[in-house]
Amino acid sequence: MTTTELSGIGVRGQGRPARVVVASFASCFGCQLQITNIEQHLMDVLGQIDLVYWQLTDSTPMPEEFDIAVIEGAVTTEQAESQLKELRSKAKAIIAIGSCAVTGGVPGMVSRDFYERPSQVYPKVPHACGKMITPRPVSAIVNVDFETRCCPIDPYDFVVMLQRAIYGSNKLATTRTLCSDCKRNETSCFFEDGTLCLGLVTSAGCGARCVNLGRPCLGCAGLSPSANLDSARQCCERYGVDARAFDERLQLFNQTNPAVEDSDR
Amino acid sequence: MLYRVIDAAELPLLVSAFMQQYEVVAPVKRGRSYVFDAIEHPEDMVLDYPTTSASLKKYFLPPKETLMRFNAQTNRVAEHTLEVPPRVIFGAHACDINAINRLDQVFRDGTYNDPYYCARRDATLIVGISCTPADSCFCHLWDADEARFGYDLFLQDIGDRFLVSISSVEAANILESACNPREATDQDRIDFRHATRRRQASFNPGIPDIQDVAMLMDAFHKDDFWEELGSRCLSCSACAAVCPTCFCFDLQDRLSPDGKQGERYRVWDACTSPQFAQVAGGHNFRPEGRERVRHRMYHKLNGFLANHDRMLCVGCGRCVKACKADINPVKVLEFFKQKGADDASAA
């Protein structure tokens, strides 16, 4: 579910700065923290909004009215699911940030046969866990207007999405995959020496950061909507990489993606 | 055309002379392949390199290029200066020079010039160098194995010497000042002919030489082959990123972090990207991989020829390596060869 009710129009224009809340579900809180890593631009960014609630820094209850909800984390409990629906009903725009919120991310890793898992960990599942449900990304429950991908997010990417929510934008999210970024960066392809890399199917946008640091893509940006999993498996075999290793690697960040769930069972 | 001969030992002097006035970019080894990059010393470059992983187009059409800046509050265009360093591309292969000639046809020699491209092109000297074809090279099939124009100097390796074709005064002056160019002798000419024959004999005979490719593209427009090829497209656009003649771009805006200033930039785009042919209202003229891959091959092997009298593909073979899904013009040639064999056996 990605249809937006904003239709390219931002939330501004009400004679006051956009009111923003930052909320978190199952996650490490790292992406919220990452926003502050924009450092010298932080005040510039805050100057464009009225930050009415930030879960990381705030113990007071979330206000009833706001314009933009920035949401981190995967939905893993019934309570979170209803909180998310409430956020959606109040917000004019929702920005999902980080792998957990966008793809199910790390919490999503356990989504297969999920209901058997808590009892494997706890003799008696603690009450504090809430009523657990299969982990899923924000977009599996409500419409999401903008996404800032990756684990963790790039704070500059987040600011771009925040500005699009405020000022409006009809820009399409790219469907390219990472391989084209590597070609632009002129880095050597891992497949040429038989090393698995998820760039074949992962959304472009990060600029192939891990590959630039000499490590293959793990898929934290999530599958491109145009990902061709069947062809990618054939590519693996063509370059001497076991296609089962490819499917296994997808479970790290993309376990809850229907394309992955459907294809490798 | 003027021809002179210099000794191979003089080459570093020529590169150093260019470095006095220009940024020199040349092939260098990076990772498992070769790339064009700025060099600081003549010995940094590797002139007997196989095709670089990406092409030279980045120096004329950068992957991301700011076209203008604007004040987002007043909605007015702000000051923006295009900075173009005077540059020498040293060691370009003939296919890559021919590719730049095709980009010139699009951006410089058409009805509407692209000022950004022209500024970069005009500030760049090109020194070509002869090469030995790699397994994935098929430039000879498109008549792109020889650069007839589009360079300032072209160095033909004839053993311990280079036969230098000179086609600009600017480069000739630098050659004259740095080296000791002499008239070509009969022996130089003989060695040049031998070198040319060696190159021509080195092409991979496994890549089919098909006549009338453009016509065959039309004849087999509806063949199932395109579904076979398109269905395995990964939609990654790696092919277009490495292609020396893929010139399509997208225009995008971005605001500064404070939201007060903005820039409009262009980024490389590709007709193999699923969104490429999506228009206002949401309709997509080429929603399927089959249509997109076929369209790209058509532009390379048919459409451009109709408008510009030459193939847009120069046979550099970069896509042969870059495409992990094994989609490239060689597959199209193999398909035509197979079709020809099928027809012959049916007749």
UniProtKB/TrEMBL annotation, chain A:
Q: Which Gene3D superfamilies match?
A: NADH:ubiquinone oxidoreductase-like, 20kDa subunit (3.40.50.700)
Nucleotidyltransferase recorded as keyword: no
Domain NADH:ubiquinone oxidoreductase-like 20kDa subunit residues, every copy:
28-162
* Record keywords: Oxidoreductase, Ubiquinone
Q: Which InterPro entries match?
A: Hydrogenase_assoc-protein (IPR051349), NADH_UbQ_OxRdtase-like_20kDa (IPR006137), NiFe_Hase_small_N_sf (IPR037024)
Q: Does the keyword Oxidoreductase apply?
A: yes
A GO molecular function assigned to this protein is: oxidoreductase activity
Pfam families hit by this protein: Oxidored_q6 (PF01058)
Which parts pass through the membrane? none
Q: What is this protein called?
A: NADH:ubiquinone oxidoreductase
